[in-house]
């Protein structure tokens, strides 16, 4: 079974906050295919290697997720890479720090470019994402744990808010389905 491109264009999630614009550019695939990997090919899909059940489950989760769930996965992945980056700084492993913080940067960048700027709150979110992105770069250059703590707190706030939005949306959908 092949990977399906993220061509949602507001069809599956009513807020329309994110638009997965370029169907030829599978941005999310590297983030989820080997989320926990480290080393030269970290985060890149391995072809021709016998997949383990966890990887198969992970791939299925990504390809069957709604846009809202994908966004939640991105927030969780970003937090994971920030934590890995912090651990690498503590262990003085500059290669792992750089690898993980660059992954966090790419996730924030993807969240930035997929915002639907027709939604009023998107402009404010873009400013926050830009700030987070710049701070991640600064934390990477300076190996600064305080900056990473700040960024982790901001991303956690976005993630927790997003999780609540998804729960409220599901509840509303259930109520509407019950009235039909």
Question: How is this structure best described in words?
Answer:
The protein has a domain at about 65-180: Up-down Bundle (Four Helix Bundle (Hemerythrin (Met), subunit A)), CATH 1.20.120. The longest helix is centred in the last third of the chain and has 35 residues, at about 145-180. With about 180 residues, it is mainly α. About 65% of the residues lie in helices and about 0% in strands. Residues about 1-15 and about 20-50 have low confidence and may be disordered. The protein starts with about 25 loop residues before the first helix and ends with a helix. The chain contains six helices and no strands.
Number of helices: 6
* Beta-strand content estimate: under 5%
CATH superfamily of the domain at 66-179: Flagellar protein FliS
The CATH class designation of the domain at 66-179 is Mainly Alpha
Indicate the structural class. mainly alpha
Determine the CATH topology of the domain at 66-179.
Answer: Four Helix Bundle (Hemerythrin (Met), subunit A)
Instruction: Report helical residue fraction.
Output: 55-70%
- Secondary structure: number of strands: 0
Give average pLDDT, whole number.
77
C-alpha termini separation? 35 Å
What is the string of helix and strand elements?
Answer: HHHHHH
CATH architecture of the domain at 66-179: Up-down Bundle
Molecular shape: globular
| Rg measurement, Å | 17 Å
| Main sheet overview | none
Low-confidence stretches: 1-15, 19-49
